[in-house]
Structures are given as C-alpha cells and as structure tokens.
Amino acid sequence: MIGQPPPERADAARNRQKIIEVASRMIAEHGADQLSLDEVAKEAGVGVGTVYRRFGDRAGLVWALIDEREHRFQQAFLSGPPPIGPGAPPAERIRAFLSAVVDRVMDQEDLFLLVELGSPKARFGGPYKVHHTHLAGLLAQARPGADARFLADALLASVNAYLIRYQRDERGMSVEAIKSALDDLALSVTGGPPTSRRRG
Amino acid sequence: MIGQPPPERADAARNRQKIIEVASRMIAEHGADQLSLDEVAKEAGVGVGTVYRRFGDRAGLVWALIDEREHRFQQAFLSGPPPIGPGAPPAERIRAFLSAVVDRVMDQEDLFLLVELGSPKARFGGPYKVHHTHLAGLLAQARPGADARFLADALLASVNAYLIRYQRDERGMSVEAIKSALDDLALSVTGGPPTSRRRG
DNA sequence: CATTGAATCGGAGGGTTCTCCGCTTATTTC
DNA sequence: GAAATAAGCGGAGAACCCTCCGATTCAATG
C-alpha cells in the first residue's frame, strides 16, 4: 500500500524471496516460537544485516509471512459474496467477519502470536488497520451514534490470538464455542436482543 | 493465593525485598522500558541468578511491582462502597469496574505494557484472574444465559494497556472519551438500550 | 565497455534475557 | 555447639535481537 520510488534491486528481491522461503520452512519444521533470525540469515546464505534491512525487525518478517495469505482473506470481506461480502445487512456482515477472523487467526496461529508480542507499531500495523477500517465502517452503519472506531478496536481485541488460545487451551472452549460467544457479543453491540437471546 | 509449604528463608526474603526496592527506584529514574535485570541484580548486590530464582522472569518481577498497588484496588471492588463495591446493581458495578480498571492501568501504564509482552502465562496470571472472576460473576447476574466468562475476557481485552495507549496516542482520544465509549459498550453487553442511547 | 555513485551486503559486536550448576549459607536436629 | 540437609546464591556462558559501517555489487550513463 506504499509506493516504492526506486524499484527494488534484483539482488535485494532475490534475497527477500530466499529469506521468506527459509523462514517459512523453518517455522514449518520447528515451530514459530523457535524462529531465530540469526539462523534464518545463515540458512538463507545472507548476513543478518540483510534480514533486518529487508524486514525491519522480527515482527516485520512475520508480517511478510502473514501477508502471503492475507490478500485472499481481504478479497473475501471486501468484495466476496455475502454474508461476509457486500450485499448483506451490516450487522450480519459484522458477525460473519468476526467468525472469519477467528478462522484467519487459527490458520496462522503461531505467526499471530509472534506479532502480538512485538512492538505496538507492529501490532497495530499491517493488516490490523485494514480490518479495523472495515469493521468500523460496518459498525457505523449498524449502530449510528456510537463510537464505531472504538468498538472496532474492542471487538478486534476480543479475537486476538493470545486470548483465543487461552480460551481454547486453558478454558477448554472449542473454536465453535468461541465463535458462538463472539456472535452473541456482536449481536449485543449491533443492537440485538437486549437481555434474552436466541440459541447460538 | 498459593500456600508456601516451606516458609521463605531469611536471606531470600531480604533479597526479594532489596530487588523490589532497586527495581522500583530504577524504573522511577529511567523508565520501565529501560529496566535491565542484569543491572537490577548488580545494583541490588546479588547475582542475576537470584533475581530469576525469586521472580521467574522479567514479567514475574513486573507483576511483583504491580502487586504492591493491586491489593488496594481489589479492596475497592470486592468490599468497597458502591457503585464499584457491593450494593449497586450488577450492570452498574460492571461499568464502574471497567472505568476503574482504566485508571488502574494508567496508574502503572509502563508496567502493564511490559507485562503484556511477556509470555501468555504472565499475561493471564497474576491479578488478571481476580479481575476476570469478579467481572464474570457480575456479568452472570446482569445477563443470565450468556457466556459470562467469555464476555469477561472480551471486556478485559478492551482495556489492555496497549490498546488504551494506542487510542490515546494515535487516535487522540482522551482518557475520558475512552471511558465513555467503554461505558457504552458495557451498556450494550449488559442489556442496555439496543440502538439509541443516552449521551455519555 | 569503463566509470561512477547509490543501494545493498554481511558479520563483528553491544546489550539483553535467561540457564546451569558447583559453592555457600540458613535452619533444624541431636 | 556441631553435624546434616535443604535452600539459596552467583556469575560464567549460551542464545538471541538488533545496530553499525566498511566493503561490495548493481545498473544507469557516456
């Protein structure tokens, strides 16, 4: 989403590609929390300085890996079929979106966990801004008068990778149960049944 | 809240005290993000191994510092005067509690920021469990039939230190505005006005 | 091609977190 | 007191993140 005034040099592009390949493979083999940038550099045959020049820091590299699958996800909620895409009423799109975010996070759970313990810049950068803008737009329609941007942050905070993992592993909730509870929360926020509610 | 079968030895207690003192002073002088455990150890006149034996890791030490003010806060919502303490209706206590949590986080903002980038064990340990149990209890009363424990996690996720700081510094929201929006969210969740609502 | 200057590379090194384990000390028991 | 033993101590060192900057390489130009 940012223009690159001078196009990337050939060797730089080659190295970026190689680094991403190696990092993906090492994560698949040893798990994301074992990822050492020193080792990635050595394995990719470049200096560690090159890794940092290309990706800024550890979280930057992780975002690059996340981005590979992110585009398809964004297509779905920006221009895909309802209920997540345009066409369904806002409240319904919100619920479909949140459910999809849960799946999205589970899909690359380790990577999202890593990103979330990076710097704030990393946490709220990357795809977060896109998700937030989208959700805030829908909320503004579904619940005019409320602070849509705050609510968007609050809902996204409820689907952060750490919390989901905690609820799954420590509280023994299934992913379905999490989605159901989230659905209930979204219903409340968008003006659903005030005190009773239909079954999940 | 955990029994300690063998009481702590005198030298160990002395060292714990000394380490906490030194850490508090160093944070007051240089800021929490500059806190180096090596330096704390040297300054306290103990080996770095002693620091880790006593506090487990960096986040453990930070919790110990947070705990010093935590007790007074817990008194307030467990047995203090309404609306945060017993006596007020649950929905009102929830809103008062959330507002107080925001103040609590702002009070030791740097420390909460540090804790939140520790391991999950650190994040959901310590005071978190107490806050969660309290909030879930109130939610179960205010909104029977809903998944109170999930909702408690979701609301607490909305008041995490990173998010508050982000809203304050990047979005330019005042603490009052944050509290007001949070109040709105809590009203929705506890069965407040479905779509319109009174002004914050 | 040869030149040239800007972009890129790479790895030594500073600073940090945390582990490991032989040595020391407090406390209990006789 | 002295001996026994469990707990605690401490610092060397492994592993890691990231910075810095001289050496190198690319690609545009004549």
Low-confidence stretches of chain A: 194-200
| Most extensive interface | A-B, 41 and 41 residues
Instruction: Predict the CATH topology of the largest domain in chain A.
Output: Tetracycline Repressor, domain 2
Name the shape of chain A in a single word. elongated
As a percent range, the share of helical residues of chain A equals 55-70%
Number of beta strands of chain A: 0
Count the domains of chain A.
2
Provide structural commentary.
Two copies of one chain form a homodimer. Chain A has 200 residues and is an all-alpha fold. Chain A folds into two domains: 1-56, Arc Repressor Mutant, subunit A, CATH 1.10.10.60; 66-190, Tetracycline Repressor, domain 2. Chain A is 70% helix and 0% strand. Chain A contains eleven helices and no strands. Chain A has helices spanning 10-30, 37-44, 48-55, 58-79, 90-107, 109-116, 120-123, 127-142, 148-157, 161-169, 175-189. In chain A, α1 packs across α2 (37-44). Chain A binds chain B through residues 117-118, 120, 123-124, 143, 145-147, 149-151, 153-154, 157-158, 160, 162-163, 165-167, 170-171, 173, 177-178, 180-182, 184-185, 188-189, 191-197, and chain B through 117-118, 120, 123-124, 143, 145-147, 149-151, 153-154, 157-158, 160, 162-163, 165-167, 170-171, 173, 177-178, 180-182, 184-185, 188-189, 191-197. Chain A binds a DNA duplex (30 and 30 nucleotides) through α1, α2 and α3.
